[in-house]
Amino acid sequence: MAPAVLSTTIYEVSPPSKRLKVAPLQDDVSDASIETEIQPHPLRIKPSGNALTAPYNLRNTSTGLFALFPDEVILQVFGYLDADELVAIGSTSKGMYGFGRAEELWKSLFIESLASKATFTWRGTWRRTLLNISDLQESSIPLPDLFSDALYRPFHMSQVPLGPFVSNIPPQNQIQRFPDISTEEFNTKYSSAPFILSSPVKSWRGFKEWTYKSLISKYGNIKFRAESVEWRLGDYVAYMENQCDESPLYLFDRGFVEKTNGEMETGFTTPRCFGKDFFEVLGDDRPDHRWMILGPERSGSTFHKDPNATSAWNAVIEGQKYWIMFPPDLTPPGVFVSDDQSEVTSPLSIAEWLVGFHKLARQMPGCIEGICKAGEILHVPSGWWHLVVNTSPTLALTQNFVPTAQLPAALEFLDQQRQSVSGFDCSRVTDPYKLFIERMEAMFPEELKKAREVLEGRNNKKSKWDVLVAPKETRTGGFSFGFRV
Fold this sequence. Notes:
The chain is α+β, with helices and mostly antiparallel strands. Helix content is 30%, strand content 15%. It has helices at 58-61, 71-78, 83-90, 94-100, 103-112, 126-131, 149-159, 163-166, 183-190, 205-209, 212-219, 233-240, 256-259, 350-362, 407-416, 432-443, 445-460, 464-468, and strands at 20-21, 37-38, 176-178, 195-197, 223-226, 229-232, 251-253, 290-295, 300-304, 311-318, 320-326, 336-337, 344-345, 368-373, 377-380, 385-390, 394-401. Strand 3 (176-178), helix 9 and strand 4 (195-197) form a beta-alpha-beta unit. The radius of gyration is 26 Å and the shape is globular.
């Protein structure tokens, strides 16, 4: 069996009602402003720091030779075990029982199992669902003397309240809001700015008729994509309504129109203000560009830019989403980008990022935040960084597009960032830039010409520093710096 890739995460449900004060995790993501009085871990596991005042730690006295290794390594080794082996090793001692109950191990096993691809009954945790047992059939041995950040931290993160992060947004950070705008206003003023429109979505049939529960009644047996799995909508909602994952599975399905025989396509329309979408010239060769999104509170997307320099709109049908955004040239804290910008790494869950970096991010010039509520639609400009998290169970639709004002950006990206171009069927499209140029020349030659002129103007424009350090024979006069070697 191939080893599971772990992020050392544990998930549980139905925590005890008693509240317990615990020592805060002292690490790079601790934040004194976050409430530390939270639900205790279901197995009473505590952070590693509590071991300093404890007579013993089960991870040292009850795990045999595994005690020689860091907790993360123990979990990595356990990732090679199957379900029966995990149950067996967990029965050898309390310490091994604690590590064997890590939910991320069971999540990987279930997702890789045949059960995940068939009809199943979600039972509140990944472990119970894979073993097909009820909560009454599952053992629950308290482990108050097991101290491990690797085991405690994911549960702690799943309990962090979103309220302090999504409220009290500074006035200068607020995403601008309008009832609606015209196409001319969008192209001349707002194509490079985030904004929220409160009017267009409210006229959609989908907004008036759809809830995630109403969709179950019609499409409950249809399978939709939720990250690495394809589940029946009914099964996903059962999971969504009864889970305590740090990073809940996020339904993000590109084929929802086809899967519903076109019925959902009649429930929405692109707001007129966005104007022409030039990626439409690609026809059947166009990359995936529209998705149905559904997820519970705390589900969402970590920081990223939308593909191929496209812009996007995101319309909330039910629930609400918190957005935090940065302009293209300002990398958010906690995000690492490769030199050629082809790889983006954000090694934190949404909760960890909020706890560790949100306060700093909110103070940075250029940071933009806002809540997009049901019946509202948010514009994501081309190239903007954005993190989004659901603050309640949320149903939404999103679509990527290339408007007139951002056509130069799309052309430049397809030409200059070829290693980062995504979504095209490589068996049919070997050169996306060439294909796009050919289609634009055939259908919108004037718009293509203007976009190329904009790019040419940008490329020919010298920076002030270039002028200052230019050789004497190229200067037009005035003071400048020159360097000789």
